């Protein structure tokens, strides 16, 4: 007896017509459905016919700012749309923040995330205000959404670990309050030397506390911003291999190739997780350029080729830095295909992995995946495979958490009135398929 069976599913690895049996919140069986027959033995309390749609593990956002989300227009708009004005605007908003408003906006965003099949999020929480109202709010949100979203919190000294008055003490207090990950922003310190010193100090704290590290690193067009090199070296020094993420890494798009030929092997040796944010990186970088204008995203293809784990983040949704966003990680992957110029079939499969399994690895998520014994956290999409999912950004027909359906979306089907043509058009079917 299964609690639920999903029949006729297509899986991200290319298997088609698969039945998935779920029991006690976990995947209990995976078996081919031969010739359309129900070959998975046993009855089920509920059955979902995927009808040869893609069924995947849930999407993961390894880099987000939930304390800022949905605050667009408060206290004013970012007129220039630049990173620096966004930071200044957040500084204006910060003294006005209340715990109640932060919680309300975050919960509203999490509703959106669930509808998009996004069930794991790592958010950076600003610790620059000694009130730490952002930390209090996000800890409350983490507890409230635990039944349906796994939320990791990063202690993030937005204005700089050393640059901010009481920045050192505030970050330590945030960790004492229960924040999960040590963050930093070395390129925003006053000098390159202070930036490097912050990396060393923060990695030391992580090693002493047994915590992971996730730093905003080199989010700039300056090719001489090379804090990722220091982060990789300190990762090795403090025995943090596999537990450290370098987010953004946009300066790599401007570095000379000889230096990068040294840097990437060092990152691979340190087992650094790289987390680019395609939507925001392409929007905010290259703002000082006329033409030619730099693309603004790190060297995704080269990092992947070196065996470095690359995971894509959404970063922002309707906040001081980014006025757009939908909580849809497939939108992130869609942009990555274009900006990284990874349009080949195998390229797109790697992009999809950067939204799912790679992010699970970067965040150390246990029980994630499409295998017997894994948590029954699944998404049924109105698309036949990962290539079509990235192309269409389709409806999430069903979102499951521990084997329970927690969100449904009706399939997008257009009704047509055209002479001699079909009466309807399923948006999830490839019109060229035979």
TrEMBL record:
Q: Name one Pfam family in it.
A: Amidohydro_3
Coiled-coil stretches: none
- Domain annotation Amidohydrolase: ranges: 46-405
InterPro entries, per the entry: Amidohydro_3 (IPR013108), Metal-dep_hydrolase_composite (IPR011059), Metal_Hydrolase (IPR032466), Metallo-hydrolase_Enzymes (IPR052349)
> Gene3D superfamilies per the record?
Metal-dependent hydrolases, Urease, subunit C, domain 1
Listed name of the protein:
Amidohydrolase family protein
